[in-house]
Specification:
Layout (H helix, E strand, L loop, with lengths): L1 H4 L8 H6 L3 H15 L5 H15 L2 H13 L4 H8 L6 H15 L6 H9 L4 H24 L17
Helix pairs in contact: 3-9, 4-5, 4-6, 4-7, 4-9, 7-8
């Protein structure tokens, strides 16, 4: 199961080794990830959400893992850094990330204005539900990696040219 879980990655990531301690949790996590990959949100959007949530929760392992996945999804170093700050140049992505940040920080207590802004940005009800589902999945993986003190097995995040030395 673990070897098939992450096509394109060499070896079995440390996170999956920890997750495998509970076959039920591993199946649930991988099934949710697979189902969301078939949803309306693009891989880029899902990785942007993952980066914002990992930054908020302080999950270093997830930041590294999702930075690598975001690069594979076509995000630039600058876009990865922006997503970590819940920002993006694209107005629709920026609104999605602001909503993500608000939802996580406010523990689900979202104002009508926040919901209206997400709708005005062009997100459907189905996409809003998927944003919440992606957030929930990432909170789980963040917390498990923080709790487990998972050792990084992904390359460090490259600093974009605008980043000070």
């Amino acid at each position: 199961m673990l070897e098939k879980a992450r096509p394109g990655f060499e070896g079995i990531p440390n996170f999956l080794r920890i997750l495998a301690n509970s076959p039920a949790a591993a199946r649930a996590c991988l099934a949710a990830e697979g189902a969301l990959a078939q949803g309306r949100l693009s891989e880029r959007e899902r990785e942007q959400i993952a980066l914002a949530v990992a930054e908020i929760n302080g999950s270093k392992y997830c930041l590294l893992a999702h930075a690598a996945a975001a690069r594979n999804a076509g995000l630039s170093g600058e876009e990865i850094e922006s997503a970590r700050r819940a920002a993006a140049r694209d107005a629709k992505a920026a609104q999605m990330l602001r909503f993500t940040q608000s939802l996580v920080l406010q523990r689900g207590e979202i104002s009508d204005e926040d919901l209206c802004a997400l709708r005005k940005a062009g997100f459907s009800d189905a996409e809003m539900v998927e944003i919440v589902a992606n957030i929930a999945l990432n909170v789980f993986t963040n917390y498990l990696n923080i709790l487990s003190r998972t050792q990084p097995d992904f390359p460090p995040i490259a600093c974009p040219p605008s980043c000070p030395p």
